[in-house]
Amino acid sequence: MQRYFAYMLLNNLQKKGSRGNRSGIGARGKPDNQTTKQPDNQINQMNRTKYPWLNGPKKNIHDQAGTNSDRAVYFGFDRVSEKEKARKVYQHFETIARQYDLMNTVLSFGIHHLWKRAAVDLMGLNPGDRVLDLCGGTGDLAVLADRRVRPSGRVVLYDINSAMIQAGKCKPSYRRARKRVDYIRGDALRISFCDQTFDAAMVGFGIRNVPSIRQGFSEMYRILRPGGKMMCLEFSRPTSAVFRWLYDVYSYYGMPFLGEVIVGSRKAYTHLPASIRTFPLPHELTAMLKNIGFSRVTQRNLTNGIAVIHLAEK
Question: What's the domain range around 92?
Fold first, then answer.
């Protein structure tokens, strides 16, 4: 079923965004329970020679890694199983989806918009590129990428939380771009596309919430074409000792207070600073990306290291 959905979506991509002799984009994995059911014979009748992505190469790396297993990982400062973290993260974003963008702007004093623009600019996207926005949430990075790859390129926003996707689709900013973006609900640890599908993949402020960070990056590596670009924008810790102390005070006391006032949930924003502290340091993340297979890995600190951009190539 999910293959049929991806076929319909990416047949449209081929019509609107094909370049040269590229093959189309294809889906893999289990059916999404929110996808409209279609007769199985429609899939069987498809011309699999004409649409080779239906039988594209697949690697079961998520099975080898033990997706959503009982392996202990961090949720904030608590050690929980991968399955429990996935459940808690989903509930967290279900709670804050409607106020997510407002809270981002309030908590960062609007600076997150500058960070996102800088991150997409550094990717060097070109018209015609096909881009995956993993853990895309409300689509800020997706619409910025769309402006750089249109008219022949396409952007696919991929997120597990339907409330976040819906909140992004309803945002008044960049309405035309949001209509051009394709939305898929799916698991970052089981990306529903064939190997070597995209020219670029990006993730912004989302990878630290994935149960297995390494596996999430491994999936991004898998779906990239050789030479494809990867960008990760994520929170980190300030480099200045004084600024780090001020940031700790703000994040441990100011953020939860604002979360309670604006969202009505202090607990939701107590998790945020804890998740930042347990996320790999920039040099540790660089080492992880190289170990996965990425090359030309670079990093750029933003606002004294509060946020860091990692760029890499396959």
Answer: 66-239+269-313
Q: Among the residues of the chain, which ranges form H helices? A: 2-17, 40-44, 61-65, 82-96, 100-108, 111-123, 140-149, 162-169, 175-180, 213-223, 241-249, 255-262, 271-277, 282-292
For tokens 């997120």, the residue is 159
Checking if the pLDDT of 38 tops 50, the result is no
> What's the pTM?
0.79
In tens, the pLDDT along 252-290 reads 999 999 988 888 878 878 888 888 888 999 999 999 999
Question: Residue 297 in 3-state DSSP?
Answer: strand
Structure-token pair, residue 12: 């449209």
> What are the Cα distances from residue 275, in Å, to 50, 73, 234?
46, 11, 11
Phi/psi of residue 129, nearest 5 degrees: -65, 150
Predicted local confidence at residue 57, as pLDDT: 45
The residue among 296, 87, 102, 96 whose CA lies nearest residue 209 is 87
In a domain, 301, yes or no: yes
What mean pLDDT do residues 116-138 have? 97
Q: Are 312 and 289 in contact (CB under 8 A)?
A: yes
Tell me whether residue 72 is in a domain. Answer: yes
Cis amide prior to 151 (ω within 30 degrees): yes
Which residue in 76, 27, 84 sits closest to 53, CA to CA?
27
Domain containing residue 287: CATH number: 3.40.50.150
| 209 is a domain residue | yes
Taking residue 57's Cβ as centre, other Cβ atoms within 10 Å add up to 9
pLDDT digits (tens, 9 = 90+) for 207-247: 999 999 999 999 999 999 999 999 999 999 999 999 999 99
